[in-house]
Design brief:
Elements lengths: L31 E3 L4 E4 L8 E6 L2 E5 L3 E4 L4 E7 L5 E3 L3 E2 L1 E3 L7 E3 L4 E4 L5 E5 L2 E2 L6 E3 L7 E9 L2 E2 L6 E3 L12 E5 L6 E7 L5 E8 L5 E9 L3 E3 L6 E8 L6 E8 L1
Parallel strand pairs: 1-9
Antiparallel strand pairs: 2-5, 3-4, 3-6, 6-7, 6-8, 10-11, 11-14, 12-13, 12-15, 15-16, 15-17, 18-19, 19-22, 20-21, 20-23, 23-24
Length: 260
């Protein structure tokens, strides 16, 4: 038998401490806006049972939401009341607004280098693929670097539009002797190019045609012999780069031709 007379009842008072209540946490470490863009700031430790107040420029902007969209350089902070009755307020955060950088332009100098009009933050592309060079000037000196180049710049976290393409052309790829030549004519042409060459050790050469504006290859004619016409009537009027090469790539010559 139990002696219920001697059992003492104890009452335990549970008291919640708000000292350790977590501060609202945002999903960003940088707060900036580019041009006409917007940015969404979101709470990562938000619960639907929480109450939130978003203050923007010291005025209540929104309540009971985990995110807010900003388009201007505002100052904001958030107060959260959790289910335990604990209130925590974030530090005030200033959003920075930057202009989108101007689209850079590419020029070529006397040292055979391509220059971006943007002095910092450059990212270069060759034939549409990003390359590792991020300087203002890239040195191009050998035939392997022939191609269509574009560049964009990132400043204050904002990215410019891609520049217009610049087709880098090396015209002195090989030194032809007095008895050796590669010739394309006429220039300008309408539908047909006449192809003639005398190069020791080579009876056939390959033809590739690139659109100067885009760097896109628009025609390919392999294993051409001297005297064969190149029919290009399907191309639109414009400027094209004609690349002449051998299968072993020891012969490589470039021509800039205009189609009427």
């Amino acid at each position: 038998m139990y002696d219920f007379q001697n059992i003492k009842r104890a009452s335990i008072l549970y008291q919640v401490s708000c000292v350790d209540a977590p501060m609202p946490i945002f999903d960003k470490s940088q707060y900036s806006i580019c041009g006409t863009d917007s940015t969404t700031v979101k709470l990562t430790n938000y619960s639907k049972s929480d109450s939130t107040i978003w203050y923007v420029n010291n005025k209540v902007k929104a309540t009971n939401t985990d995110q807010l969209v900003f388009k201007t350089n505002d100052t904001f902070y958030v107060t959260r009341l959790d289910t335990n009755g604990c209130t925590k307020t974030t530090d005030a955060i200033k959003l920075l607004k930057f202009s989108t950088p101007s689209t850079p332009t590419i020029t070529r100098d006397s040292s055979n280098s391509l220059n971006s009009s943007a002095s910092i933050g450059n990212l270069w592309y060759k034939d549409g693929a990003a390359i590792t060079d991020t300087t203002q000037k890239i040195k191009l000196s050998d035939p392997s670097k022939v191609g269509s180049y574009t560049v964009k710049t990132t400043q204050n976290g904002c990215v410019s539009a891609l520049s217009s393409p610049y087709y880098f052309l090396v015209t002195d790829v090989i030194n032809l002797s007095a008895s050796e030549f590669i010739k394309l004519a006429p220039n300008p042409f309408i539908n047909q190019l006449n192809f003639d060459f005398v190069v020791k050790g080579y009876q056939r050469l390959n033809i590739e045609v690139y659109d100067l504006a885009t760097g896109t290859r628009v025609a390919s004619r392999p294993n051409y012999t001297a005297g064969m016409p190149i029919m290009l009537g399907q191309l639109s009027a414009g400027t094209y780069i004609i690349k002449v090469s051998s299968n072993d790539n020891k012969i490589m010559q470039q021509f800039k031709m205009v189609k009427l």
